[in-house]
Specification:
Elements: H1 11-21, E1 33-34, H2 37-47, E2 54-58, H3 64-72, E3 75-80, H4 86-92, E4 99-103, H5 111-119, E5 124-129, H6 135-144, E6 149-157, H7 158-165, H8 175-183, E7 184-192, E8 197-198, E9 205-212, H9 223-235, H10 241-246, H11 255-264, H12 278-291
Parallel strand pairs: 2-3, 2-5, 3-4, 5-6
Antiparallel strand pairs: 1-8, 6-9, 7-9
Helix pairs in contact: 6-8, 9-12, 11-12
The structure holds S-adenosylmethionine.
Length: about 290
């Protein structure tokens, strides 16, 4: 069966669907629907969707991007929390027989199990115009639970996209930058202005692609400790690294052990966490891990 070309993705078609179902936007679900075909094309291109791919879409809304994904991919699974969108999706996706819609909170879905059942455990692609209020838990959840993911191509708040891709010495650098870069290679595909959405968000947006590393760029003996150290270092940005680590609940190293580890790594005693690269954090995690 030849697939129908996507027909949502412009303001007129979106308004027609919304009016047909008397849909009202729910702020609490971060609902800002895409109404720009150029942006949609760009996302699909950046995600490099092929007929072999199984794609997980988070938050399909009225199914605009879902149509594009269904057109390009082998199979799509879309997880939508808002039950009032389910009858709309049944309608807008009725021409596509390769889409499954799950009415669930994405944070409660066992994505590893889904990838196992739907894609034989092979890496999946995640594509979404994310609900911004849960961007970090969604992305960190995908990485930390070791879901087999090849790439994540998502619309996020512009400021969050910047944070994901910067390095040390910049104001946006923090725990999110390090976590994302530990697991993936970030690449900002496009900046997207508010007028590409309905309703318009108050913030600028950007599409970012995170391509999972085949192998992490640094080797650590204890991943959990690495992330505890990173979190402790950025918990109170103005503190020195040594003070940040000493005062962080969950890390129980003696003051002397921390100072000795910082010296062994060759860092200045007054260094701040925001000056350290991922490699340097990994070195510190390995030295401190052995001191335990
Ligand atoms: N993909 C659509 C588009 O681009 O037009 C809608 C994107 S809108 C920014 C975010 C979507 O995520 C909404 O449909 C919203 O209802 C849904 N959503 C919000 N929280 C969610 C959650 N926890 N789990 C699944 N979907 C969620």
């Amino acid at each position: 069966m030849s697939k129908r070309e996507p027909y949502l993705g412009n303001p007129q078609a979106t308004i027609a669907v919304l009016n047909k179902y008397g849909f009202t936007f729910q702020k609490k679900f971060g609902q800002n629907f895409l109404i720009d075909t150029h942006v949609l094309d760009k996302i699909i291109r950046a995600a490099e969707i092929t007929e072999d791919d199984f794609v997980l879409e988070i938050g399909p809304g009225i199914g605009t991007m879902t149509q594009y994904l269904a057109y390009a991919a082998r199979e799509v699974c879309a997880v939508e929390i808002d039950k009032s969108l389910i009858p709309i999706l049944e309608d807008t996706l009725s021409d596509y027989d390769n889409v499954t819609v799950i009415n669930e909170d994405i944070l409660k879905v066992d994505i590893t199990k889904l990838a196992e059942e739907k894609n034989g455990g092979r890496p999946i692609k995640v594509v979404a115009n994310l609900p911004y209020y849960i961007t970090t838990p969604i992305i960190m959840g995908l990485f930390e639970s070791h879901v087999p993911v090849e790439s994540i191509t998502v619309m996020v708040q512009k400021e969050v996209a910047d944070r994901m891709q910067v390095g040390p010495g910049t104001k946006d650098y923090g725990a999110l930058s390090l976590a994302v870069q530990y697991y993936a290679e970030p690449y900002i595909v496009a900046n997207v202005p508010p007028n590409c959405f309905m309703p318009r968000p108050k913030v600028g947006s950007a599409v970012i692609r995170l391509t999972r590393h085949a192998q992490t760029p640094v080797q650590v003996e204890n991943e959990k400790l690495l992330f505890q150290i990173i979190r402790a270092s950025f918990n109170q940005r103005r503190k020195t690294l040594a003070n940040g680590l000493k005062n962080y609940e969950g890390l129980s190293f003696e003051k002397e052990t921390i100072e000795a580890a910082i010296a062994e790594c060759g860092f200045s005693p007054s260094v701040r966490g925001e000056a350290l690269s991922l490699e340097e954090f990994a070195k510190l995690a390995n030295v401190l891990g052995r001191a335990k």
